[in-house]
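OP here, attaching both records as promised.
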Amino acid sequence: MDLSGFLTSAAKPQLAVIPAAAPILQALLVVLPAILVAVGSLIVTMFKPSTMKRVLHLLWTQKVAVLLIIAAVVGLIYLYGVLFPPVIDEVAAASDIGSSDWLLWRGGPTRRGFVPGSEEPGHGPILWTFSRDGIKDFYASPAIVGDRVYVTSARWEVFKKDGAIYSIEPETGKLVWKFKSDGYRATFSSPAVSGKYLVVGEGLHYTRDARVFCIDIEASEKAREGVKLWDFRTGSHVESSPCIADGKVFIGAGDDGMHCFQLEPGEDGGAKRLWHLEGKDYPDCETSPVYHEGKVYFGLGNGGNAIVCVSADDGKELWRLKTPCPVFGSPSIAGGKLYIGMGYGDFINTAEDVAAKRRDDLKTKGLSDQQIEEAVRDIKPGGEVWCVDLEAPGKPKWTFKTGRVILGAVAVADGKAYFGSRDEYFYCVSADTGTLVRKWNAHAPILTSPAVADEHVYVITETGQLYGLDKSDLSMVWDVSLGAVSMSSPSVARGHVYVGTKGNGLLCLGRPGREKEPPIWRGALGGPGRSGWTDGSTITARGVYGWGYAGEPEEGASERPQVTMDAPGAYLDEVFYVGFNAENASGLARLSFGDKLGGKPSQDWFAPSKNPIHLSAAGTGNSVFFVDGRPGDADRALHRLDPKTGRELSMYPVASDASGEFVITRDCLFVAATGKGLVCLDNEFPEPGKELWQAEVGPCVGAPLVGDDVIVVAVQSPPGVVAVDRCSGQVRWQSPLPSAPQTGPVLAAEKVWVGHAGGVSAARLADGKEPVTVACGNVSGTLVCDSDRLACVTSDGQLVVLNPATGDESARFADAVVGLAPLLAGDAMLYCAKGSIQRYDFAAAKAERWAKITASWPGNIVTPLVMVDSHVFFATDKRGFVCMKPKKG
């Protein structure tokens, strides 16, 4: 991969490796000519015959003293070596050499960068950093085999251009051995390991005679120093990483094409090259090849623009598929299909930079402006991922376009393909159809490959931020700064992430499992935008009635009172908090399930309220919150209860003309407690007059949306969206709406969305600008969303699903129950229809009945759905609080 732009700038004296040293270096360059003249004059004087004669005569007359001085110096050097031997880290011997392999870049043909069966990190800081000999740049991706991490380094400075191969203990970061002999140079290539053999390339883009090295791991372990088996000098750089298969090594050598070596040394003890595909026919051969069923696959970059398949035995070309742009992503293979990324641009240069450099080059060659523009016409932003069926490779089975180039490999797992792009998005698409499943905005270019484990995906941005994403929905569960930019792809094993940086060494980060946070239920359905999907569980193929609960009979009464529920339950740590309204009493009840969701709950307590409950509760491990009454009712209040006993801890008045909608965070609560706007309270509710702030933005509709630094509300008059500062309540921006809002705001695709009579409208979260409106009908009920979808139900029963990034409609259903939002659960959705709950599969674009629901049994559904561990909870007008269980078989 071309790092020339990066290295060129790094090599300039004014941009030295340590920026603070730049003035010193500049001053040195000013006086350097004078110093060189003085030193030269001294050398000329010393080597005059007369001077040499006098020096030799002096040494001879003082020969005894000179000999004693030489003996003393030699003795001191020896004594220093005895008293202060080189520091060698104490590490245990490798226990499993040859028990596992890392045969190619990213570990295997699916390019997951993950050791199967390993624990997965989900929290934690940087555990250790590794660097040696003043070299702190690691462009390569670590290979992890057993209890060793293998990686190469790169130093490209004004006066030093070298690198090394390291073996490192994975838990401590201690050096086991290094190979720095034979003038080993700064390296981008990543190691491949098979048994006792480690193979890796050498050199960066400027290296014109880079070598391929094979190291004996067993001998290196014993010697505590890298032991070379063989090396081979190529005619170009070797930024490609090797692939080991069938006793052979396959590796690209840039402008010198593709090489194949025998893994074991030849009869003369050196490298044995089996075949070579010349660079004139296979230009810019830098991707890491992959082996599959006797064939080798690789991509060609600038000047090649192709995917190539050759015979592993003799290198004979079997087919070549031309591509519209250079291929920089290394090919992956899974399920008989090949996946590969491409586009214009590289680690340093955008497509625009590439075009500009090409124009400058052609201009120096004397081409006309018209000729130049014709030559650079196709060099433009954009990237593609291709899927090629290896049984029918004549054309791609599908292509997926991105905003910019894909430089890393596509990782394939569980029927999905994962990759990042310079366009700052991380993508998950169907491996079979290329249909977008979801994408995640990293807010920075992604230039490297992800590591895809069983439950998490790990992504590094160009800016040096590591993200751990939930594999099911690409929600972020962990992030940590590497402290430096990174061009290395992360490798995951042993509960840690290993990744290289520029300037901060090789890093080991994270600990197994996710950091346990105190439970919180922020508001209705989990908080603004959420749809009742609580724990990432899957929607089963069918559901069946489990139970209904309508409260406990009063003491001495033979029958339960007729109760109604108007709001969905709030789920928190194996407990539901539900509002029950009866003729003589209303209040909040706590229902416990223990370990059996499918069994009927027990009521732990009931906290009465003066008014019926029409809004969902919220809660943490320390407090439960609810608002009683609706606009027009008197004596309304926001209540804070002890979750264990139901005892009232504090109250805050809610005005008769206020919506009472609220949302909580771990330390604050934001409530529309007056008809004039929003109030921010501490979670322990100080007495009135001690609010953290009040914002008179107008009558609020729906629950407030909590951003990182702003709180966003939809207001009735004048119709619009208002963002206030989270700390002070001061207005940050306002954006008008075409009509009065019908829903509260939600956040999707970095935009704030609100439903109204004409459809849904959005404005940019950062500043309220770039407003957009999608005319989808009069919105009724609640807006819900996830990272890829925005869904609403209209007043005429149309369920509309939109892509929030583009505003395009992706699905519409005509039989939805008005006012009941759907439940979005990754690749599937549940929604309430007439006489049933429907399950819709987004990937298959197919809807089926999930459960039969009629007015007679168990009654008409009156609240949106909440799902816990694949059990679905809602209220009906006949059975109260209802649980639908997964249907067996």
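Record two, same layout:
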Amino acid sequence: MKNTNCLSCDLPTQERLHYFTGQFLTQRDFQDEQNYFIGKHRQHNRYLHGYGTVCGLKVVQHPNPDCRDRFVILEPGFALDCCGREILVKEPIYFDVIKYFAAQNIDLNSIKPEDGNHLLLSLCYNECKTEFVSALYSECGCDEMGSDANRIYEGFEVELQLVQELPKSPHSESVGVNLNWITTLNLAQASRLAFDGKYLYVLTAAEPSQILVYEAENSVLLRSIDVEARGVDLAVSRDGKYLYIIRDKTASDSTDNYFLQVLNVENLGTPPPTVNTLPLGNRPIDLNNPPQVLVAAADGKVYTLDPKTKKIIVWKTSINTSGVDPNLPVGDPNSPKYAEIDTGDEPRAIALTPDGTWLLVADGIANEVKAFKIETLNQPPASRIIHTISLGESPRLLAVAGNSSRLYVVTFPATGNKKLRGFRIQETPQLFPEIGTANGIDLGAEEPVAITTSPSGRWLYLLLKDSSNSPPKGIIKVVDGGKLATDPSHAVSEPIPVVTNPQDILLDPEKGRLYAAGQGAETPPPYGGVSVLEVTEEKCSEIVWRALDGCPNCPEDTCVPLAVVENYLKNYQNNDKAITDAKIENHKFRPLVPSTETLRQLVLCALETGAKPGGEVAGAGVKSADAESVDPTANADADFDPTTGNIHFKIPRGQPGKDGISVKSASAESVDTTADADFDPNTGNIHFKIPRGQPGKDGEGLEAGLTQIIQLSWQHNTGNNKLAEISHSNRLGTKHGVVIAFSKPVLVSNPADRFDPPNQIDADHVFQVLLENNDPNSERLGFLCRCPVKGIVIPVEPVNFDGDRIIAAQEIGEPMAKAAAFIFDNRFFSTDNGTLRFTRSETEINELWIHLRGDFVLDNKDPAQARAIDAEFVRGELPTGDRPRGSNFGLQGGTFESWFWIGDRPKSEDA
């Protein structure tokens, strides 16, 4: 199984030891010395070499056919994980796949292939302590004798996973975009597009409509699907099993309405059956502003927007099961509706952030975009979190980057050309700040009809309608989102023509294809169709400048993917269990770190196998070259030895030149023009003019949107603090303790029974209060020992404050809370004025030391969706913080530490 130790990716310290004669060195010094050089080495690997396989590590079949139903072999090799840690495999590893899953209580015959069909094999760095020897003192100093490891072995683990979605092939996004036409799918009245990674679905605007299904790899038409009425929009589920169509009424419908029809398209060999037909609300049919549908990437819920009824319905994934009752209200456990939202005014478009945080609604009358916090959608309207982005112009189109970092809005001013504006999707220090100026960028005279973005949001693809022609021409413009703030006048590309009367646009970033659908003319020719364009890099020369966009970040899983066995589970359950070389994919999903030797061979190969005229016999090729200088009167010459591949040049020496004037000094200035240099022979000064570089874009730091520590019930490293008053459950009564508050709710107690230990945040391991252990033996030897004390941790809500300090909190009955309180057990008691004493001796306790291990403080009940908090308390509150106050970026986990005194701070500490 994957290593779960907390192994940091970052350089532990920027400080190295400084030695001097007579210096007293302890274990801490030697450990810091080792950490510094290990960290420097890994930092070098991480940023200068990259991440992936260096050599070897090929996954192959077992030599014995009888063993291939359970074994694969990992050959020796060397890799770097994304933290720069080296992984060395010295011997072949015979890996038992069946035993691996059995150890995790996974029965391969009982798993559904849709829950994880492909087998992914990865290599993970691991450390383990070895050679345990006696240690004189334990960490706390409370034991007379203990033991500790004498060595740390740097090893590895092989990890297997059953995954539904295959990892993406390692690639970097283009530094420039070039669109090349590949083909056109000719069909009448193409209107809307949907794509599941394998199949392209095209909805026509005919009455009744059809859906054409194409195999995206080679644009082959697989089948057509008849729609009962006129279809106006469609979307596909994340796993490609279900197709969602919005259509108007059929002849059998008694009222005017639009309906959401769910089709099961898992088997395209037969006509897809209708699973459910769900009414969206009685209203007149209006093709100028019809309903819209989209599927959430985060959880698969389906969102429908009806601009006429001004309502958004959020449908549960239960609509993929037949027999649901659409008339049941929100809140009924059997209702297919998760939430209903009244948008107000004039909703024109909706979008979702792929991370599941925000629902965005464009309001054409209010001239704003409303951002609804998705986690609050099923709450009463007054309790929902809503943020408004004021625009001053009518928004019509929305697009969100695949990494949830940017929002783009196309606005239609009352007069003049349409505009594009960009916003950063963040919560702190400011919600949705605008990128660049508030005026946005001018998109020209054409009318935008659809928009999509690249995964990072760097590139936008705008589909526009040129109505000066009949039928209207379709064009695509590519927008460089990175230039919205730095160079807006050069952010929009020249137009690229596509099908006439354009309607919709869709990007397949994996295969680098862009699809544009158009209805064409009302009468033939042409009928319209789908333009298929290839998206490629524009200039290789710009690649080196990617380094200005920030340093690479590690994914959450730092293991190195090696190989994939596609459809492993389905084949296994069909009794095709053998894992052979033909089934093992070693190349497609594996990142590589080419060594210097590999790069040298690539360069020599490129030199030796350059392009040659067709039909001619290849020459011997130049393998090496040398040169000598000969007398100036001789002629230049060259001799080639076909046996060795060496070419020898004879180059005449030039005539001796005159002595030049020495450069005595140099100066430079930065300019907006091209590089230049002027030399003054009188003074011997050379003056350089050096062009200023383009401003770099803002880096995105670490991980966005993590829960953070925002308030404490004490002031760090100060005296005269008081314990907070914790009230008031029937079980506990009023107590005193310490409180830590968070920016968002965290899982404090056991969801099943919060008084049944262990809690999620417990007092033994996660939220600790340490007191000085006045052991005479430790004091005599010069040790200062602090040990954790007994207590409980409960979920609370802060109710009273003294400035930023929490002075009172109320216990709540929910496992998720915005604050956690540590309450001391009965061995301690606190007085009304907030002091603390030992119950048995009534000795007053002054100094408290607080530890919170952030790796175990989670922001969601569901472990699959939970993230650990960023446990650093920011600069401005504590000097140990790793980020400025208000930053939206941080690092999951870490240990929060602080200390304070209840009474006066000891004078010896003041010194």
